[in-house]
Amino acid sequence: MPELPEVETVKRGLNKFIVGRVITSEKHDTEKGFPNAPADVKNFMIGAKIRAVRRRAKVLMIDLTTDYTLVIHLKMTGQLVYVAADATRFGAGHPNDSLINNLPDKSTRVTITFEDDSHLYFNDQRKFGWMRLMPTVAVPELPFMQKVGPEPLESSFTFVEFKQRFARRKNSAIKAALLDQSVIAGVGNIYADEALWSAKIHPLTRVGDISDAKMKALYDGVREVMNLSISLGGSSSRNYVHADGSKGRYLDFAKVFHREGTPCPRCGTEIIKTRAAGRGTHLCPREQVLGK
DNA sequence: CACTTGACCTGTCCGC
DNA sequence: TGCGGACAGGTCAAGT
Questions:
Q1: What is the average pLDDT value for chain A, to the nearest integer?
Q2: Could you tell me the domains of chain A?
Q3: Residue A172 CB closer than 7 angstroms to strand B?
Q4: Which of the residues of A are catalytic?
């Protein structure tokens, strides 16, 4: 699923496409994806105007003028795709044509219609994702929001804080700690591997065994790979797409993720794929060594 | 508390 | 071509 850079890219796209639009109808296929009562939808969503779209960690928030918010988690395969009333505006042959011209499809969980007959589709093949309507003031009270760590790309997020956040996970593997959203927000499987390669740290290294210099390299690496990815529109490994249905380009620039069998860009050693923290994990076996 | 593992779903790919 | 198993960008609830 989308990690921080992908969710940030969707947020920016939605801010461009849907702010100011009025919702005229909503339709969903199962209670699992969108468990709100029809009365909530009728009273606080239909007729509301989109005020702004925000992101915290990997969670999207669409604020409405009713002081209610649509809170959305895309999990592994979620998509939020906006399709204009005249979808041909992209022109024949545009790379996202095949997706947007065929929505809704069997993965569509929720369809939101705006006053100009344009649509926002929430698609999710694996159905792990969810969308909920709740009062805007209640969003920070969600259990996830209570425990989630700081945003690593904020300029106020310092190396000192980074080190402190990881200190309470000193006995776990560094990759598991990086993926723990309560330590820092937004890192997922792709950027964990990319940042660990950048800092030359083996993913199974115990946090407490990592030198200050390497932790600093990791702090820099996390921020660099995620900033680069945002500038490239995120990573489209399988399902992820922008709010206009097009794909992200980060994986064309990835150093290790999905690059097993190809040479390490620094030393030429073949990248391998293994398992760490229960996840597929990519690394350079020469530069990322346990106990170093 | 810190830490690990399995469960939630559907689709795809790979080996037999 | 079919079938079984492993695996896929995330989080939770359980277990130790």
A1: 94
A2: 4-147 (3.20.190.10), 159-283 (1.10.8.50)
A3: yes
A4: 2-3, 58, 279
